[in-house]
Amino acid sequence: MKKVNYLKKLFFFFFFLIVGWGEASPLSVNFYSSSCPNVESIIRQTVITKLSQTFTTVPATLRLFFHDCFVEGCDASVLIASPNNDAEKDAPDNISLAGDGFDTVSKAKAAVEAQCPGVVSCADVLAIAARDVVVLTGGPTWNVELGRRDGLISEASRVAGNLPAPTFNAQQLINLFKKNNISRSDMIALSGAHTVGFSHCSRFANRLYSFSPTQSTDPLLNQTYAEQLKAACPQNVDPQIAVHMDPITPEKFDNRYYKNLVRGMGMFTSDDTLFRNSATNPTVVKFATHHRQFEWAFAKAMIHLGRTGVKTGDQGQIRRDCASFN
Hints:
It is built from 13 helices and two strands, in the order αααααααβααβαααα.
């Protein structure tokens, strides 16, 4: 089994190295080949160490990358800490970002700075770490395009309306991702990251206890699954309590998310809608049935996501500390 998994990873590596995805990109997979040739191995080791301490490293880092890219572009603006609590990370939609994601990037950046000071952006460190947490939990690999610069704007007031809500329907998701040049198929593939995700109970409690005036529980929820969620998230539960989004293989990056959607086990309305909507249903069913097609699609979508609103050339800066501007 280990040999099969190794060969699968090797295949993905050479496929993306040789074939790529055809679209022009302002980034390059060889950007640091001369200035910091070991950057990826340095970051990988940091991620391995962090993952050995807590699995939360995986969903926290993936979510951090997504939230960063959809506000100001993939420029590490979400990493800035403000003494006035008015930076991007302080916005209501970002308050629930887990600290382990920030810690992963901070430690990886410090390790890179020790060998290549002032060379590698925090935005690129985050992009590489996001790839590594997927690979280390059994998911596909891909060549991370590099050369991003770190942004100079990080404001909480600029976040609202730029991130998907758990109550979104399929069309709202399609429209939001389209605004960021992310296709419908890429959006569905990226949603598959929820296979290793977790959520605080408050994000979906309305589906359990206050769905409508006539039905307290969303009738589209699998009944057994709904009862499991209620047991994990009783009313008035501690707001810090979080629940795995995939109750079956929560620490494995696989296509179980889509299999769960087919069974009515999507935690958020924004998950369930992907199966219910006629425009997105065929892709969900395809990914549920063919795990390799999901892996290919996810890798491609992550490459596309990583190009969102990037700063290059003389734009932005290379931060010395990811939490503060130079």
